[in-house]
Structure formats: structure tokens, C-alpha cells
Write a structure and sequence with these properties.
Blueprint (H helix, E strand, L loop, with lengths): L1 H20 L6 H8 L4 H20 L12 H16 L1
């Protein structure tokens, strides 16, 4: 319900700006207000997907097929840093 209320508020402000100031079609402020409109289905789909992704990552964190926490490039850099300190 709050998403619908927010969308109504944004639409009301946008319509009032159009009636009062008669801006052009390419007015950046109207484009921002139009982009601020939230689609209920998209919002909940993204929210659920984000929650599921966190759960899946937590469950499969220790799987042998999971990527290591550091990359080979990071490990190489650490080894080079250690070697540089030892050589000096």
C-alpha cells in the first residue's frame, strides 16, 4: 500500500508541475519524477531475489565448487609484497 501511496504522490506532483509551468516533454525534472514511479511487481521481485541470493550464498559458502574468497591476482600481489619486504 505504501508503494501505491508513494506513486500517487509522485504522480500528483508531476501533474501539478505540468499544469502550473507547462514544461517541455524533455524536461529533466519531469523525467526524474517519471523514473521515481515504482512498479509493485518489479519491486517485490527484486526484493525477494536479493533475499534469496543472500540465503543461497550463505548456504553454499563452503562448497568445494565455490570461488575462493581471494582471487589469484590478490594472492600474487600479497606474495610480491612479502618478497619485496624480505628483499629489502
Amino acid at each position: 500500500m505504501q508503494i501505491q501511496n508513494l506513486n500517487s504522490l509522485v504522480d500528483t506532483v508531476r501533474h501539478e508541475i505540468i499544469e502550473r509551468y507547462r514544461p517541455g516533454v524533455d524536461n529533466p525534472h519531469l523525467r526524474i519524477l517519471q523514473a521515481a514511479h515504482i512498479e509493485d511487481d518489479e519491486y517485490f521481485s527484486h526484493t525477494i531475489q536479493d533475499d534469496i541470493s543472500v540465503i543461497i550464498r550463505a548456504v553454499h559458502k563452503s562448497d568445494s565448487e565455490s570461488a575462493p574468497p581471494t582471487t589469484i591476482a590478490e594472492e600474487l600481489k600479497q606474495d610480491l609484497d612479502v618478497a619485496a619486504v624480505l628483499c629489502w
